[in-house]
Design a protein that fits this description.
The complex is a heterodimer of chains A (433) and B (481). By secondary structure, chain A is mainly alpha-helical. Chain A contains 14 helices and 3 strands. Chain A has a domain of 152 residues. Chain B is of the alpha+beta class. Classes of the chains: A mainly alpha (433), B alpha+beta (481).
């Protein structure tokens, strides 16, 4: 069976699960089965098959599992958002369609990801500009103290979602060039030339902390950078040094920037009287919702999101706290199931990096995969109080146009890398995994 | 590079393992702590979305029901009480702003339809939404209404009527009361009201029992074998009891009596006789029998624990005293000293003697019934313990019949029915007013109802104020009203 046929057959159970999810939500909503769920499922399958044909035409050898896994996450996200607010689900579905168009356009126009290397400085500059855009007066603005989005009229846009891809492309390309120097350098002889990139990226992460004031995104960027640095140089000392510097900077800023400091205080004890009704409300309510879920959850549509006396019980259920809603309704089993789907996706991403033929492809696939993994860790860790809660999205699942479009773009890049990686040994008579 | 990529993947696996661990903690292992957190209102809100069961009287009248408000996300149920003030204290109330009281609180699991995990999963699979169960109580709406009418004419106080053989509570009344329908608006004001309308006097008030306590003393005297109903004791007054002169004036049947039998001394409620008997029996025997009757511990009734009070001798700071403390047991024996009892306790004393000396668990709930008519739980009458021998109970009954036939409680006579009873009048406010009591049961040969009636701060006495009320309620419950 060819890779593409496997991919096609992988999409069918995904579409069935999405249909089942919509059915469950509609039953709880109106106590009846409506044919609408079949329509939703069929449309979803149609869209995925449409994108699948582009992959089939342009990337015949790409990994067959990544697209169905991503489709499963996006479909699951649509069901959850539909359950929370059908109007938002409709918008999210439009963004999903737009994301698929971007996905198809990318694989049509970007024949070889290595051409991206030529534009690395442009990409880096655009990414940094994107990151700083929320601080621009007029279009930028703070949400909960963090500068994460820009708005043009009614249209909102989270530049960090796209910037993360740009930064990864730049780093992969940059580290491919400099890794030899970094690897060969020994301590007494290390000059600023060796430390340079590390310091620059560290500085960038700190600038992000200062400028966009978001611990979550900077953790995500810096984490992906360290993963890449380690893969490129295999020197743990760099990683340890980087982590130390980041911790130092985070500590310094945490004790000097009020907004970051507040987040940390709340994280330490969100249930403290006085905090729990205000700053700690979101995290505390998220934890209460998870406790309500138990092992098996309350079932689709059964979680209490709004107070019957009006007002929200669980703030931001479709974005920051969607993981809490999932745990509430599907229980520990459902939540772990979701994490396993992410892990399978991440596993395929790292496999792509392993089979890739050149250093840039390896680094690019590693970086793109790692940034998804860390993003999941940052938001799920925030909701489960492992780390302070920050406002990054749960990739492909949370509501948010920028997020889903950016992640589908990221998926397209991974598939392009994968196609090249798997075609080359194939052409040379190698084994396809 | 591949080795490093694998290592990075390994690190990601560890990070995800941490997430799985944290999720397990919050959903399973640490979930109880979160559910008990006072900031967590989810259970409370969730329960507003469940239609609570009805509370029904023994006659099948609905005393509490849930009314649906709103729909979709704002769907909720709110409690209404069609019988208004009639059962305020015993059934209580349930409102999200103020919590719950009475049976609404103690029987919340049944009323909210909470079940074991397995049944809930089955219901969920069958797509049956959670529904409360109906509570069929033992209370008689007619008798309760009559009691309220009669007592309201006399002021504040309480009435408790029990079916002696089963312990089923037929009347539980406390005045002043409140309308549970208005609790959300009136709670603050009711809570500040100096007449304490929120307080269930039947189970929470500690009143001096006066001479009704002599029934306990007589039971101890006869059951211990130290006295018989015909034992002759001097009724002279004053007499030194507990080192202090005790006289018969100022209570019912004042004056100096010659030698009389215990039967006569109970009918005339002679303090000096019973004071001496109590003193002779001593603290150990008296406390032994008091405890058997249920003193010194909260009654095993299906109301919230903190809405119950133990009857007994209260020392400083509300501490319950016992035989090891310095107590004038002679005065305890006639219902004085620092003895404080609840109306429920005195009704139990009457019911225990009526039931041949066996104390039954007082019971408010007869059965729990699901909406579709399935009986989820039937509460059977339960014996608590044998308090006195059957023969002692018979003798005390005869003595108490004397009280009604030719003693202080002739006002409680019912034509054609043998009534056994005992009056009580305790001075309060330094003698400015009386706590009037009457405990009784009827018919004496085959008791169907036992009762305790008490009126606060009245100028009358047990025999004139409380006994007539008890008579009419017993008549009603015996079907002779």
């Amino acid at each position: 069976m060819s890779a593409r046929t496997r991919e096609f057959f992988g999409l069918i159970p995904v579409a069935l699960m999405v249909t089942a999810g919509f059915t469950a939500v509609l039953i709880t909503r109106s106590s009846q089965i409506s044919t609408a769920t079949l329509t939703y499922g069929a449309v979803f399958l149609g869209l995925c098959v449409f994108a699948h044909f582009f992959v089939r035409a342009r990337l015949p050898d790409a990994d067959p599992y990544m697209f169905p896994l991503a489709a499963l996450l996006a479909g699951f996200g649509l069901v959850m958002i539909y359950r929370i607010n059908p109007d938002l689900a409709r918008k999210q579905a439009q963004w999903f369609v737009f994301g698929l168009i971007v996905f198809c356009a990318t694989i049509v126009f970007l024949r070889d990801h290595r051409t991206l290397e030529r534009y690395r400085y442009t990409i880096a500059a655009v990414s940094i500009a994107l990151l700083l855009a929320p601080r621009l007066p007029g279009i930028g603005g703070a949400t909960n103290g963090a500068y994460l989005s820009v708005s043009f009229g009614a249209f909102q846009f989270q530049p960090a979602e796209f910037a993360k891809i740009g930064v990864i492309i730049f780093l992969a390309s940059y580290l491919r060039d400099t890794r030899d120097v970094l690897v060969r350098g020994r301590f007494p002889h290390l000059s600023l030339k060796h430390f340079g990139p590390l310091l620059i990226i560290w500085g960038a992460a700190m600038l992000m902390l200062i400028f966009i004031r978001d611990l979550g995104s900077s953790l995500m960027f810096f984490g992906a950078f360290l993963a890449l640095l380690y893969v490129a140089t295999s020197r743990l000392s760099f990683v340890a040094g980087g982590l130390g510097l980041f911790a130092l900077g985070a500590w310094f800023l945490g004790s000097h920037i009020q907004h970051v400091q507040d987040r940390v205080t709340v994280w330490k004890d969100p249930f403290k009287p006085g905090l729990v009704e205000h700053e700690g409300y979101q995290i505390a309510q998220g934890l209460f919702a998870q406790a309500d879920g138990g092992l098996f959850g309350k079932g689709f549509g059964q979680a209490l999101l709004q107070s019957p006396y009006g007002g929200t019980l669980l703030p931001a259920p479709h974005t920051d706290l969607i993981y809490a809603v999932i745990t509430d309704e599907l229980g520990l089993f459902g939540a772990v199931g979701l994490l396993v789907v992410y892990l399978l996706f991440i596993d395929r991403g790292f496999k792509t990096a392993l089979v890739a033929g050149d250093a840039f492809s390896k680094l690019l696939a590693t970086g793109l995969t790692a940034v998804v993994a860390i993003q999941v860790f940052v938001i799920v860790g925030g909701v489960t109080k492992v780390i302070p809660l920050t406002g990054v999205t749960l990739p492909l699942v949370s509501y948010g146009g920028s997020s889903i479009v950016a992640n589908l773009l990221l998926l397209a890049l991974l598939l392009i890398v994968s196609d090249h990686a798997r075609r080359e040994p194939h052409a040379a008579g190698g084994v396809v995994r | 590079m591949n080795r490093q990529i694998t290592q990075v993947f390994g690190l990601m696996l560890i990070l995800f393992a941490v997430l799985v661990g944290a999720s397990s903690w919050w959903t399973v292992f640490g979930a109880d702590g979160l559910k008990d957190n006072s900031a967590n209102r989810r259970d409370l809100l969730q329960e507003q979305r469940i239609p609570r069961g009805l509370i029904l009287t023994d006659n099948g009248d609905t005393a509490a029901r849930s009314t649906r408000l709103g729909s979709g996300n704002s769907l909720r149920y709110v409690r209404t009480y069609p019988t208004g003030n009639l059962f305020s204290h015993v059934f209580g109330y349930s409102f999200i702003q103020l919590g719950r009281a009475g049976l609404e609180r103690s029987e919340n699991d049944a009323l909210a339809g909470n079940q074991n995990e397995f049944s809930s999963i089955v219901d969920e699979l069958l797509n049956r939404p959670q529904e409360g169960f109906d509570l069929h109580t033992t209370l008689d709406a007619g008798a309760q209404r009559l009691a309220r009418q009669l007592l309201a004419g006399k002021g504040r106080g309480s009435v408790v009527a029990i079916e002696p053989k089963t312990g089923r509570v037929r009347v539980m009344l406390s005045l002043p009361d409140y309308d549970p329908n208005n609790i959300p608006q009136d709670f603050k004001q009711l809570n500040r009201d100096p007449s304490s309308p929120l307080f269930n006097r039947a189970t929470q008030s500690g009143y001096p029992p006066g001479s009704t306590m002599k029934v306990v003393t007589a039971s101890a005297a006869l059951d211990s074998g130290r006295y018989t109903p015909n034992s002759v004791v001097s009724g002279k007054s004053p007499k030194i009891v507990g080192g202090v002169p005790l006289s018969n004036c100022c209570t019912e049947g004042s004056g100096n009596f010659g030698a009389l039998t215990l039967t006569e001394a109970l009918a005339k409620s002679v303090n000096t006789v019973w004071g001496e008997v109590g003193e002779k029996l001593g603290k150990n025997t008296m406390f032994e029998y008091m405890r058997r009757f249920g003193f010194d511990s909260k009654p095993p009734i299906d109301l919230p624990r903190d809405e119950l009070r133990s009857s007994g001798v209260y020392g400083r700071g509300g501490k319950l005293l016992d035989e090891h403390d310095a107590i004038d047991i002679g005065r305890v024996a006639i219902g004085q000293e620092r003895l404080n009892v609840t109306p429920l306790q005195m009704a139990e004393v009457a019911a225990t003697i009526a039931n041949g000396g066996v104390r039954m668990r007082p019971q408010l709930v007869d059965r729990v019934v699901a909406r579709d008519g399935r009986v989820k739980e039937r509460r059977k009458p339960e014996e608590v313990q044998r308090v006195i021998k059957e023969s002692t109970a018979r003798e005390v009954t005869q003595m108490m019949q004397g009280v009604v036939a030719n003693g202080t409680a002739t006002a409680a006579q019912i034509p054609g029915v043998q009534v056994a009873g005992k009056t009580g009048t305790a001075e309060v406010d330094n003698g400015a007013a009386n706590q009037a009591w009457f405990i009784a049961f009827a018919p004496a040969n085959d008791p169907k109802v036992a009762i305790a009636v008490t009126v606060e701060r009245t100028q009358g006495e047990g025999g004139t104020v409380a006994a007539p009320i008890a008579k009419q309620i017993m008549q009603y419950l015996l079907g002779k009203g």
